[in-house]
Design brief:
With about 375 residues, the chain is an alpha/beta fold. Helices cover about 25% and strands about 25% of the residues. It contains 11 helices and 18 strands. It has helices at about 45-50, 100, 110-120, 175-185, 200-210, 225-235, 250-255, 270-280, 305, 320-335, 350-360; strands at about 5-15, 20-25, 35-45, 60-65, 70-75, 85-90, 130, 135, 150-155, 155-160, 195-200, 220-225, 240, 260-265, 280-290, 310-315, 345-350, 365-370. Strands 3, 5, 6, 9, 10, 17 and 18 form a 7-stranded mixed β-sheet that branches. The longest helix has 14 residues, at about 320-335.
Length: about 375
């Protein structure tokens, strides 16, 4: 039986490097394991801009967006965990059946890349979105939330407290859970430990806020913009380093009494900064690599410097189990213990290009588009 389609408005990227173009599109009806969600807000992430620039082989023209938040309007067959009227935050999707999914690590799903980042289609190859009868690249992170409505994969849907404004929690779907997960799921700071966050953007500041809720004694934020470092201090950093004013290695050695850092979160995607982070580790310290430079980028490391038990760990989306972590973060936002609003600047959906320019220029930390 033919499913009922939904006309909506979306921001389409026509080709790599092209601007976002608002146009009318048509959504396929929600199929098995899917829901139709009316968007209330969606965050804008550097991953969206990287794909829009043509840096990844996502099929264009297409609709991006992967930090959506909205209200369920309809559900397809086999969907029982959400119902029409439920408030939801949208995150990445996963197969649910591979070893990593079964073990609670869906960010490392065996089919993560095609399902989320480069496939542009459902797992069965069908399209969720079209324009004038021609399929567009969609199903981005199981959602493609740069549209007034989205057909969303069940494993991207996280039901949340309806009392919390959706605009205030849309970024939980990617950037915030990445920074939080780096600290809580991987580094797990012990009492008295020192944690360094390289880069005070949305992910880095989320890591700072998460670290402030742990027993870490020193939380050191590093960036090149004084206003971001000031914000980091307000969000829980005990020390800051302006990388334009001081040598990073010398500054971290001074702040740690020459012992080095127990934990480092690298969010910049700059391999020179990554190398400095590795060199700044204490014995048995761990560096979590979050920032993603272009595919194929390599970094040189001092092998002997790693032998004192140092670890370098790559990270995707905080290694989060979204159904557990996101509702917990929503509760922290509601209680004022995770002041996410300090990072957010809102823009009308029609101003998506201005939001993208402002983020690229460093004028805003986390743009959130509202509908």
């Amino acid at each position: 039986m033919t499913r009922r389609t939904t006309p909506t408005r979306a921001a389409v990227v026509e080709s790599g490097g092209a601007p976002f173009t608002l146009c009318d599109v048509e959504l396929d009806g929600p199929g098995p394991g899917e829901a139709l969600v009316r968007m209330a807000a969606t965050g804008l992430c550097h991953t969206d801009l990287g794909v829009a620039s043509g840096g990844l082989p996502f099929p264009l023209p297409g609709v991006l967006g992967h930090e959506g938040a909205g209200v369920v309007e309809a559900v397809g067959p086999d969907v029982t965990d959400v119902a029409p009227g439920d408030h939801v935050v949208l995150s990445f999707t996963s197969c649910g059946g591979c070893r990593n999914c079964r073990e609670g690590h869906p960010a490392y799903c065996a089919t993560w890349l095609p399902l989320n980042l480069i496939g542009g289609r459902r797992a069965d190859g069908t399209s969720t979105i079209s324009r004038d009868g021609t399929p567009l690249g969609g199903h981005f992170f199981g959602q493609s939330s740069f549209a007034a409505h989205a057909v969303v994969d069940r494993r991207s849907l996280v039901k949340v407290d309806p009392e919390v404004p959706l605009t205030s929690i849309a970024p939980l779907g990617c950037g915030v859970q990445t920074g939080v997960g780096a600290v809580w799921n991987v580094l797990k700071p012990r009492a008295g430990s020192t944690l360094v966050v390289l880069g005070a953007g949305a992910v880095g500041l989320s890591a700072v806020m998460a670290a402030a809720l742990t027993p870490a004694a020193r939380i050191i934020a590093v960036d090149r913009f004084a206003e971001r470092l000031a914000l980091a201090e307000e969000l829980g950093a005990t020390h800051t380093v302006d990388a334009t004013q001081a040598d990073l290695g010398d500054a971290l050695a001074l702040l740690t009494g020459g012992q080095g850092a127990d934990a480092v979160v690298e969010t910049t995607g700059n391999v020179a900064v990554l190398r400095q982070g590795a060199d700044a580790l204490a014995a048995r310290g761990t560096l979590v690599v979050v920032g993603a430079p272009p595919f194929g980028t390599e970094v040189a490391l001092d092998v002997n410097g790693l032998l004192p038990g140092k670890r370098i760990v790559g990270l995707t989306l905080g290694d989060s189990e979204t159904q557990t972590l996101i509702p917990a973060l929503v509760q922290l936002v509601k209680e004022g213990r995770l002041p996410l609003h300090r990072l957010i600047s809102t823009y009308p959906f029609a101003d998506i290009d201005r939001a993208a320019r402002d983020m690229s220029a460093g004028k805003t930390i986390k743009p959130v588009l509202t509908f």
